[in-house]
Amino acid sequence: MLSSGTFRWLWLYLLIGQLMVSHVKTAWPPSNSSNVQVLGIFEYLTNTTASSVSSIQCRAMFISAILLSQQYNMTIQGQNISWQAVETGGDPMTALADTCQAVSISNIVGVIGPALSRESAVIAPFASRVGIPAISYESTDPALSDGNAYPDFYRTIPTDSTAVLAMAQLFIRFNWTSCTIIYQNDEYGTGGAQAINEIFDANNLTVSEAIVFDTATLAIHGDLKSLLTSSAARIIILWADLDYAPLVIQKALDLDLLGPVFTWILSVPATLDSFNSTSYTKLSGMITVEPVPGGAVNAPINTTLLNAAYSIWQQYEPQTFPGADNVDYYAIFAFDATWSLIQGLNQLCSSFPNISSTCTTFTGDSFCFNRRFVNSDMLINILDNTSFLGVSGPIKFSNTSTDRINGTYYIARNIQHSSSSLNYVPVLVWSNSDGWTTNTQTNVIIWPGNSLVVPTGYAAISGLTLDIIVVDSAPYIMTSVIQDSSGQTTTKLTGYIIDLLDQLQGQMGFIPNITYFPSDASYDDLIESVANGTFDLFIGDVTITAARREIVDFSSSIFDNALRVIVRNSVSSQLDLWSYLKPFSVKLWITLLGATIYAGILMCILEREGNEALQNRSIVSLIGMSMWFAIGGVMGAGADFGATTAPGRVLNAGLSILSLILVAAYTANLASDLTVLKTVGLISGIDDIKNGKVPPSRVGIITDTSIEDYYLREVSGGSLNFYPVDSTGAMIEALLDKKIDASIIRYS
Length: 748
Fold this sequence. Notes:
The protein contains 21 helices and 27 strands. By secondary structure, it is an alpha/beta fold. The chain folds into five domains: about 5-160 and about 300-395, Rossmann fold; about 160-295 and about 410-440, Rossmann fold (3-Layer(aba) Sandwich); about 465-560, Periplasmic binding protein-like II (D-Maltodextrin-Binding Protein, domain 2, 3-Layer(aba) Sandwich), CATH 3.40.190.10; about 580-680, Helix Hairpins; about 685-745, D-Maltodextrin-Binding Protein, domain 2. The strands form seven sheets. It has a nine-stranded mixed β-sheet with strand order 8-7-6-9-10-11-16-17-18. Helix 2 (about 50-70) crosses helix 10, helix 11 (about 330-350) packs across helix 12 and helix 16 crosses helix 17.
């Protein structure tokens, strides 16, 4: 907020006459006959633009409401309400300066206007400071809807948020999913663009591109042709007012960016008089979505007030009255804005006798920023609870929002080309309760190109050359070598995808430029080449992942794909006569043989004299019996004679202990070998890998593929603990070389 001191120099500047306030010379009665005055703020009153025609009609309905209150004897402190009108030229500072001057030298009890959102963004805080209501008839910026931020601001025209909601429902009605917006860089434009982004997103609609029109340089930011043609969206929303919309349309016309290729939706009914008749076919098919009073859609309105206002207008300024059917819609909203304020003032001064003599009193000095309306809170409370049937429909406000609560209507009009002119033809109407419905007058929409077929909303590709990636992957893409009669060979692509492309080419008319990649190409790299614009399409067995969705769009799946685990085939077992020796190693068997011989020799030495079984035998027989004893002890079977001496018994005990250990170890190892031999496969599915039946380092994963993404997301929790391979061939080789035990592959 600027300081009071900052504005004192402005006040002096105004007093010495350096800033002029424009008034229109008309036949209206004098406006300075009362001390209770309402200020009307209008954009243009003195030139001949489309905006000035609207402003003059708004001013006429504003004054008609004031004069009608005089006819109805709605006096304040015994005085009629009178008026002042100022012209801003669309400049917010001019609007503020003129309003400040009027408040400083006159008893301004309320403001009707401004028309523009950029002006209301300045006047609304000023009105709150002074304590007088400001009721706009044309400002639609959603940022002005906050009743807490702008407690003294109201508007009888619907906010742009409602307009965008109506547009979103129009998109849904015609099955459009995306658009490009062009908006002017002021409060009206940026507020509308923000509302479009928010509301379209909530309705699953996409804004492909947002393009700025600079109101200072009157130029588009960037190359308009490149921006529009590079986007797939073919629905263009132009969010610009009456001053700038024709400029943007003319630029698009010069660049051939209108029909039949693009469908334009306008937020205002841009004047068509400035366009050459040779361009009518290009302009035909545009749609406008604009707020309208209830009378335009056969909703209830106060016809008594409306006819009385028209009668006063025709009495004092008949040269500007266009006829009841051609009155600018904003002028009707201006009447209801004025009538709301008049009713609020009348109720304030008539319903509270104790303040009737001071109901319009101000405090402070003459400088506008130091003035304060004494009964501001009471008047605002009355307006918050205002409810009546106006000339635009039901009027009702609240203390939480500056917007009217009900009586909101929109109309969609279609620019249609007749033999010698362009006309706005009503085709659809919208209300909060019913959404879009068919207009009672006509429901035929002529789309760009003089077509009755609803546009698809996206770019057609007939005649365009598309750079397409395919990857060797049977049966989708296969190669075959063909030799002609001269002996020259060529490689031909075959497969399901080639057949599909032939079918699509016949139906859609595009020209395919196919680039072939071998099967070991990185799918992630190929997808990146589509994302950066190197190629237009990648058709193949491509897995859809969340990461890939962030950079490219996918079509609907045309075949199912799954993941499978690949392992080595189990080798069928063959009869091995020496397999009973495998539980122990060769070294262990040699050690056991040596231990047995040594035990036999000890037995011979220790028992030959004291053991009757070994007495009187030859050397060979003695050695044989001793070895028999040792072998029986090691095997746990025992011999047919026992040890009789103490050393012999100790040896026998040692052999028994050794026998227990050897039998247990042999049995365990033999059982393990037989179990492994009988196992059909190591794992049965992906769940076995998740459950750790195979060490992660023994699982082969092809890197830079969707399989790696799946493994990291679903199996390892992001840990790179697998065995990396770079191709299917390398994975098969690693399996056969027993570097890995399993791998995950796609299976179609």
